């Protein structure tokens, strides 16, 4: 492939390197110029264009990406159509994403033109989550590079999604006078929620004395009717012969491993009785925040059996965020006073559900005011300080509709990749001094400044250390306030997803604020806009 400027007269058959607009016509990047295109550009006074001229063995970016994607085993995966040299790959089931680093590296080392990016090894995913993406960097690549990638991916899987298998689980909780009953009740609730993510259920709980004999008897009694036994000790495991590992052996089982290089989560016990997993959970697993127990549980629920080598290999990346409620938390540095929540308005989406109407929902007018302007004016009226507006699709039109408003605009050129890219852009723009981000969707005209002030008041009342979520009749809605502690996880989001997974697993309190129907009223279709009294605009 030869890349660079050429006289327009020599450009027929070449591929445009950059989009060009002439009058009412627009030629997108990657478009192969026809004789008619050349004539149209000439009439517009264009004399030179920047193009890619393909060699005989070159493949255009979309064909190359599609061919590489087709070489990946499709089990439990969904592939997008190739666009701009990219194919996105999504999970079709909830399960465990397992990556083969060596295979991924081999593909990426064929040539810089061919890239394959994926989630980290052994990442839990939900159905619909984006797990990998193939991107061809230039407009075309030699076919031999594509063939090399195809051969590698057919010879050895680069990744897979192992579906979670629903399990019937039993909880054995030991009791000591020092352990409060409400702590045990919370442990049951948190474990049940963890299991539900895989379709599993906590069907039995047995509370027994903190002794080897009592725990062993409970294991023996529960073993026949369950697929998984999890033991929470009232006292932490301090030795391979402590109560929980000793009880597993006494019940006829084998202790595979005691301890793991993941913090929080060090004090885990992994055992089995025949094929039945028996896990001694660390105390940190009483919190919903991610810890080493999650890593082992996810593997078991996906049909894996981690051995000692697997567990001892978890040290790199094993230092997780601290759980503040641990009895002996790591020493913390003194943090400066927490700043207030600032507002992020997401207005970059493509409005794909508007269909062939030709209108953009955010430009639809209500009483002569574009919907996006109504939303942003509500944000400003809440007096929360800085308001950030993320724009992307039809950026110039959206910004024109907000002309004169004192907001900070953030451009998201990757808006087509989905909501996550806009969320990342908005949160990043807030800087480090804020205490949280109040994230608004721009297509919810029922949300008022009073609603926002109500949510911010609750956030402030929780010391700015809780997720605050709008609900309608108890059902989740929008907006949501994400505390600063969640920002690192937000920046890892990819694809067309929001922050729901982060909210569920961040380990912070989640406070629901009832806002009525406004919390779930988003206008995504022409019919909804018209029914709400809006007027569609181009």
Automatic annotation (TrEMBL):
Organismal lineage: Bacteria, Pseudomonadati, Pseudomonadota, Alphaproteobacteria, Hyphomicrobiales
Keywords: Magnesium
Pfam families referenced in this protein's UniProt entry, alphabetically: MoCF_biosynth, NTP_transf_3
Protein name: Molybdopterin-binding/glycosyltransferase family 2 protein
Domain of life: Bacteria
InterPro entries documented for this protein: Bifunc_Mopterin-bd, MoaB/Mog-like_dom_sf, MoaB/Mog_dom, MobA-like_NTP_Trfase, Nucleotide-diphossugar_trans
Keyword Magnesium in annotation: yes
Coiled coil: none
Residues covered by the MoaB/Mog domain: 170-302
């Amino acid at each position: 492939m030869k890349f660079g400027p050429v006289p327009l007269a020599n450009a027929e058959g070449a591929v445009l390197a950059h989009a060009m607009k002439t009058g009412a016509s627009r030629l997108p990047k990657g478009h192969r110029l026809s004789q008619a295109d050349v004539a149209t550009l000439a009439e517009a006074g264009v004399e030179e264009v920047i193009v890619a001229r393909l060699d005989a063995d070159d493949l255009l970016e979309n064909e190359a990406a599609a061919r590489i994607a087709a070489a990946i085993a499709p089990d439990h995966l969904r592939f997008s159509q190739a666009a701009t040299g990219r194919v996105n790959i999504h999970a079709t089931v909830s399960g465990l994403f397992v990556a083969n680093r060596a295979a991924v590296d081999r593909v990426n080392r064929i040539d810089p033109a061919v890239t394959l990016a994926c989630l980290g090894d052994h990442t839990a995913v939900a159905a619909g989550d984006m797990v990998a993406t193939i991107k061809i960097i230039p407009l075309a690549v030699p076919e031999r590079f594509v063939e090399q990638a195809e051969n590698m991916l057919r010879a050895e899987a680069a990744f897979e999604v192992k579906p979670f298998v629903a399990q019937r689980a039993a909880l054995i909780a030991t009791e000591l006078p020092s352990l409060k009953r409400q702590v045990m009740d919370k442990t049951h609730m948190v474990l049940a929620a963890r299991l539900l993510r895989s379709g599993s259920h906590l069907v039995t709980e047995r509370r027994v004395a903190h002794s080897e004999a009592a725990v062993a008897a409970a294991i023996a009694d529960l073993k026949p009717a369950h697929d998984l036994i999890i033991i929470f000790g009232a006292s932490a495991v301090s030795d391979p012969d402590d109560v929980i590992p000793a009880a597993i052996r006494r019940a006829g089982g084998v202790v595979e491993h005691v301890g793991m290089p993941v913090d929080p989560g060090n004090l885990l016990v992994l055992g089995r009785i025949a094929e039945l997993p028996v896990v001694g959970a660390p105390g940190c697993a009483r919190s919903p925040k991610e810890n080493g127990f999650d890593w082992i549980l996810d593997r078991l629920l996906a049909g894996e059996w981690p051995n000692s080598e697997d567990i001892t290999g978890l040290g790199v990346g094993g230092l997780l965020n601290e759980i503040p409620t641990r009895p002996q938390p790591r020493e913390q540095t003194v943090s400066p006073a927490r700043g207030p929540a600032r507002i992020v308005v997401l207005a970059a989406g493509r409005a794909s559900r508007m269909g062939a109407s030709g209108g953009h929902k955010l430009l639809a007018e209500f009483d002569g005011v574009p919907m996006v302007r109504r939303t942003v004016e509500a944000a400003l009226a809440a007096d929360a300080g800085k308001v950030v507006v993320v724009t992307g699709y039809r950026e110039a039109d959206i910004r024109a509709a907000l002309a004169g408003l004192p907001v900070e605009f953030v451009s998201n050129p990757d808006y087509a990749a989905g909501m996550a890219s806009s969320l990342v852009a908005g949160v990043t723009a807030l800087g480090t001094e804020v205490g949280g981000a109040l994230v608004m969707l721009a297509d919810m005209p029922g949300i008022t400044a009073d609603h926002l002030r109500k949510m911010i008041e609750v956030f402030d009342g929780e010391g700015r250390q809780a997720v605050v979520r709008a609900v309608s009749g108890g059902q989740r809605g929008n907006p949501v306030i994400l505390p600063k502690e969640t920002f690192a996880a937000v920046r890892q989001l990819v694809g067309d997803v929001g922050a729901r997974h982060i909210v569920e697993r961040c380990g912070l309190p989640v406070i629901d604020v009832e806002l009525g129907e406004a919390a779930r009223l988003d206008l995504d279709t022409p019919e909804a806009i018209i029914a709400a009294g809006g007027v569609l605009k181009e």
